[in-house]
Amino acid sequence: MSDYIQENTKEIPVKYQPDVAVAGGGIAGIAAALAAARNGADVLLIEKQCMVGGLATSGLIAGYLPLCDGYGHQVSYGIAEELLRLSIRYGAQSEVPLAWLEKKEETEKQKKRYEVQFNPQYMALLTEQQLIKEHVHILYDSQICGVTCKDDRIAELLVENKSGRLAVRAKTYVDATGDADLYWYAKHPTRLFSKGNILAGWYYFYDGVQVKLRPLGFAEVFEEEKKNTVKPLVNRRFYGVDGQEISELLLLSHEAVLKDIMEMKKEKPAMEPVSIAGMPQLRMTRCIQGEYELKETDNDVDFPDSVGMIADWRKRGMVYEIPYRSLYSKKLGNVISAGRCICTDDGMWDISRVIPPCAVTGEAAGTAAAMTTDFGELSYERLAKRLRRQGQKLKISEIE
Ligand SMILES: Cc1cc2nc3c(=O)[nH]c(=O)nc-3n(C[C@H](O)[C@H](O)[C@H](O)COP(=O)(O)OP(=O)(O)OC[C@H]3O[C@@H](n4cnc5c(N)ncnc54)[C@H](O)[C@@H]3O)c2cc1C
Fold first, then answer.
1. pLDDT tens digits, residue range 188-203?
2. Whether 191 contacts 286, CB under 8 Å
3. Strand 211-214 vs strand 203-206: parallel, antiparallel, or unpaired?
4. Whether residue 221 has pLDDT greater than 60
5. pLDDT confidence of 8, banded at 50, 70, 90?
6. 357 lines ligand 1 (CB under 6 A)
7. Are the C-beta atoms of 388 and 308 separated by less than 8 Å?
8. Which residue from 61, 147, 285 has its CB within 8 A of the most atoms of ligand 1, so it is best to mutate?
């Protein structure tokens, strides 16, 4: 449709003026907000849902993928490890794998990767408590719907909530929206995931004895790479940046979940659904075009500006340093990205989008956001020193 209306010019109150505004409260946003607050910043976290955690909580993703390389060596530390431990404080899994808890020999640690299953509800409640404890101001039920720009910087975020439209003016901004929304609103180049996403419908159910996760649409296996035949729920892929398409995705996902419940009920009449996802279960949507595009083939590369390490959750032995340059673009000086929208190629995206990398990039972005008002100008040496002080290991050569 080519019909347009003109929106009336209106006065918008600047309601918040924090040092750091974190856009999106998923794992990356939580890590960024905690890191920025710990580095002395006054932090506002803006979240459109009514809980923090994003896909990991509202999206019902309950597997905290590995902090280790699969050969018994931990690679991700800092807030990534802190959140893993927080996620299981009261269940679903009672402890981290024993070999890791007891700091056993590497041969023992190889048998079970450093990963856990957690309860998304606890995760949402506990991370919220942690943010409050560390004086992060959380603005819920508030959608960022635009930005104003001045001199290649974001001046304000435009936010809609029950109060109407308001503005947030910060010194620096962390784009942890998962979809690079801030960059997109600022008309900075972004990139879509070329293959699109399969339909997912993960939900929790009670089987008459216990509550279980049903990962419907489980594997992200592309047609041509398929070795086993996991049938997709629908023959369609989703890009996740169009309102109409997202609505269709949600309708199809709900339909698939209901159908699955009815099928399961035939075999187990006592079975009842407990919770369905409160947000679209999209893995890779839109990412920034930063100073360096991290590639799947960059495993073992020694980057001069590494801000942390991550492992490939799919393949043992694949370790990546994350260059600071993949988090920002010099053309948008006071904005940095974190989580599943940092600058990567398609192959790397499937590695960097999962929970531990989102926490690692979130911690780096939040720390940097508290230290500078221009990410391209920040001294890497100062940033690295801070990150190390916070417990992060940055270099593959430091792996023990
Ligand atoms: C089906 C599926 C299965 C998965 N399985 C696993 C798994 O087993 N283990 C694992 O580690 N990872 C898994 N993942 C990936 C992982 O859960 C996510 O990629 C990761 O949690 C993303 O974190 P994030 O903070 O970058 O983004 P998100 O979790 O997407 O958080 C972004 C947040 O920003 C908010 N937001 C977005 N736009 C705006 C806006 N304009 N204004 C205000 N707020 C906004 C959103 O509401 C959301 O809370 C899975 C993902 C999917 C979809």
1. 999 999 999 999 999 9
2. yes
3. antiparallel
4. no
5. confident
6. no
7. no
8. 61
Task: Determine whether the shortest distance from the Cβ of 144 to ligand 1 is under 6 A.
Answer: yes
Instruction: State the Cα–Cα distance between residues 398 and 400, nearest whole angstrom.
Output: 6
**What letter would DSSP give residue 225?**
G
From the options 3.30.70.3270, 3.20.20.70, 3.50.50.60, 3.40.50.2300, give the CATH code of 14-193+285-395.
3.50.50.60
284 CA to centre of ligand 1 in angstroms: 9
58 SS3 class: coil
The dihedrals phi and psi of 56, each to the nearest 5 degrees, come to -65, -20
Residue range(s) of every CATH 3.50.50.60 domain in the chain: 14-193+285-395
Ligand 1: distance of its center to the CA of 336 in Å? 17
Give the bridge partners for 53, in sequence order: 26
Q: From the CA of 167, how far away is ligand 1's center (Å)?
A: 25
Helix axis angle, 380-389 relative to 355-371, nearest 10°?
A: 120
359 lines ligand 1 (CB under 6 A): no
pLDDT in tens, 96-110: 888 998 889 999 999
Query: 362 - beta bridge partners?
Result: none
Q: What per-residue confidence (pLDDT) applies to 400? A: 87
Please write the tens of the pLDDT for every residue from 251-278.
Answer: 999 999 999 999 999 999 999 999 999 9
Asked if residues 310 and 31 have their Cβ atoms less than 8 Å apart, the reply is no
Q: Which amino acid is at 382?
A: R
**What token pair was written down for 76?**
């991700």
Per-residue pLDDT, 154? 98
Whole-angstrom distance, CA of residue 105 vs CA of residue 274: 40
Q: Give the integer Cα–Cα distance in Å for 170 and 233.
A: 43
- Which residues on adjacent β-strands are paired with residue 45? 22, 138
Band of the pLDDT at 1, cuts 50, 70, 90?
A: low
